[in-house]
Design goal:
The chain is an alpha+beta fold. It is built from three helices and five strands.
């Protein structure tokens, strides 16, 4: 792959000087790409580097071919190429609810979180409700029967009683 088929990277763009900061053009190491990293056309990067090298006197402490000396500007206006922002595309959430206010709390979660996400185009929403109930003196047979029947009617995936 030739340099013209790739790109250079920069750490930023100085609007006042119309030049890239931290410019790297195929310098033999992998670029660290962060949210602020800019992709620069190789031809534009080379033009800035040539102008930079021509305006940097030898022995001034700035090594040619690395970074930005801050000197001069390129004769043509440079336009930074900004990397696309990758938006989050999934949400996972878990919240403990007050058992004495579960109905109100679930309503708030639905209204303040779920509705914002479920109305987005092509959103796929999965909601589950987990509960853990401990009764130190045990659960009477009639309550076990009622809860088991209701859980079955409501299509619970897991519904079981046990002795700990």
């Amino acid at each position: 792959m030739t340099a013209e088929e790739t790109f250079a990277t920069a750490s930023g763009f100085d609007e006042g000087k119309k030049r890239y900061r931290g410019l790297r053009i195929g310098e033999g190491h992998l670029a660290v790409v962060e949210r602020t990293t800019l992709l620069v056309k190789t031809s534009i990067a080379r033009a800035q580097r040539q102008e930079q090298n021509a305006s940097t006197p030898p022995g001034n402490g700035v090594e040619k071919g690395t970074g930005d000396s801050g000197a001069g500007s390129v004769g043509t206006a440079l336009t930074p190429v900004v990397m696309p922002k990758f938006l989050p595309n999934a949400f996972d959430g878990s919240v403990k609810l007050d058992a004495t206010r579960a109905v109100q709390d679930v309503g708030r979660v639905v209204q303040e979180v779920l509705e914002h996400l479920s109305t987005l185009p092509d959103s796929e929403v999965e909601v589950s409700l987990e509960m853990r109930v401990r009764v130190p003196d045990g659960v009477k047979d009639d309550v076990v029967r009622t809860v088991s029947e209701n859980a079955k009617t409501l299509n619970f995936q897991v519904a079981s009683f046990q002795r700990e």
